Amino acid sequence: MTQTAPDMIELKGITKEYVKPSGEVHTVLRDINLRIPKGEFTSIVGPTGCGKSTALNLIAGFEPPTEGEVYISEQRLDGINQRAACVFQTENAFPWKTVIDNVSLGLRLRGISKADAYDEARKWITRVGLKGFEGHYPSQLSGGMRKRVSLAQCLIVQPEILLMDESFSALDVHTRQLMEDELLRIWEETSASVFFITHDLEEAIALSDRVIVLTAGPGATIKGDYQIDLPRPRNVAEISFDPAFMRIHQQIWKDLKDEVMISYENANKFTS
Amino acid sequence: MKTQISSLASPASVEVVSRKAELKKKALKLQARNLSLQLLVFVVVTGSWQFLSSQKIIDPFFFSSPFDIVKHIWTWAVYGTTAGPLWLQFLVTLEETVLSFILGGVFGIIFGYALGVNDLLSVILGPYIKMINAIPRVVLVPIFILWFGLGMPSKVASGLVLTFFIVFFNAFQGVREVDRNLINNALLLGASKGQLAKHVIIPSALTWILSSLHSSFGFALIGAVVGEFIGATQGLGYLIAQAQGAFDTTGVFAGMLILSITALIADLGVSKLEKRFIAWRYVRK
Question: What CATH number does residue A13 fall under?
Fold first, then answer.
């Protein structure tokens, strides 16, 4: 990705605080400044509870930042981000809708006729490898297949930003690698910027153009920002044997390890 | 992925077919066993009732007997009741029940939905609804009879207040329990408020609402019958009240039997409705 591309997402001095039921103020993110160019695949890694998902919520527009602003294509975000789609960790698919109704939903909501929406949905269902399952309900599908539905459901609206909140972390290792490869394959055909949240550093490096490390919460900030210049197309299952991959992994892990230890100590402090 | 699909789509082998037949046979056997056990319970209960009553071990005057009850219903059906033909009494009660069920259901869903999606409204009205809900509804029936007279409206009103709260609380809870991710997902995909309701909130809440309809039909029936019991000129509740006034235990039991059969049939209807509206819950996993 060229660095001259315009910013798709810009976080400007973002701080996010919550008031706990006890009345205490809990700072999740503190003074985050981040620019993500158009078409870049960015991963955010950090220890559990550091506020990765909060960052995603802010970009999606589910909640406003306490301080600072979110800009999408240089426009200030106010309310739901209409240029984004999100693959959640748990379920995206509506259990009361069949696969084709789930996938075509985004188009139907935009007022496209049922026939046209179905035609387009069939293409996407084929693209994610679910041909023949159009009439199935999500409960009849495996976890990996449901993730494929989620992907198709998001990508059919051709979002400029694809948000992924630990999307594959509930899958078993093999399904996960399969889905990661699939994601890369489909992503390379689109021009979407991907904002990928994970706690798995290997996954982050294997998929991304850029990996951002957050510090342990509360009040997480950006600790490191790494460009991953491994050649594409990549094979997720094999790339981890690449010496270049290992070098990058080692480098980032040094940063991340400290934060994980801090987060671990914090957790122990609270429980004991 | 492709190989998986083709193996699923390939024609089933003979072995699979025979296995299927075997499983089907097993399922049928199980069904037959359950049905015969159910029948056995019926035979034992009514049989011993009949025996005890005809042997005068229990007093037939107070406890009646299954044969007498069926005979009584037969007499009602053929010669009519004190309030007119039996089918008319049945129809009156059914009409009151269905009307209060529908009205209570509709109001319950509307209010439950409105308070479920609107925090301000639920904060304002919450305490009042809890207060009204705390009143035993049966004490409202005499008031309804004073307000609306001995006819149908007072019975519909008493059935309505009973059904309303059940459906209301379930609809409210159903709306509140919608998965946050699903709402967020729909919003990102571009859903407006109305579309959010249509595609996400209502389908999700329907599971709760429909399960409440099972019990609320029973309550609609209770409302109608209690209303008739306290003051009416026709209906099954009126028949029971009349029989009670004449120390006619058989008549009371006969009315009860007709009521319970009605409730059973209605329950089947609601189950059908449920399968129709939340088909996705019944797909084979």
Answer: 3.40.50.300
